[in-house]
Input
Amino acid sequence: MRGIFSRRLPSLDQVLVVESGPRELADKFLRHLYEVQASRQVDVVTCYGSAPPAFQPERGICYSIHDLEFAGKRFKLIGRLCQTRYAAVSILCSGTPIMTRWKWLIALRIPAKTLIVNENGDFFFFDWYHWRIARTMVANRMGVYGGLRIDLLGQLLLFPFTLAFLSLYAAAIHLRRALR
Output
């Protein structure tokens, strides 16, 4: 991950797209990259067996995590991806828990600015200056819409006491069994 504290936005000339979610979202974002951003090279890491329909093979490479060359060898694929100088790594965050470890490992290891794409196809760069957008997205995923809910606040305040009570109860039961 690069450029977290930088306001400089890279050109989307060379982009790596980590497809981890609905195919429709990947197609929509790839069409945007080709038509609006005029990206020269777009590589795709996918969880499917084939490339997305909107992918143009003459303008990039499609890596499937299920290929025999990369199956179970994350660092071999990431090493190959690190050899290409990407301007941005696009992570599709659609709310589905597909390839979660893969996409964040790729985002951390590839020396490029991270671009977050949500389920609507909207995107923002993952940096300090877009923290409000990231906070809103995380709040929506957690089910906190608008403001802080009272029941969530109550659960957060009661959690340490609940954990302490359950730990003491388990310790008492195990001590009682040990004394018998």
User: Anything to note?
Assistant: The chain has a mean pLDDT of 85. The CA atoms of residues 74 and 102 lie 8 Å apart. Residues 150-179 form the longest helix (30 residues). The radius of gyration is 21 Å.
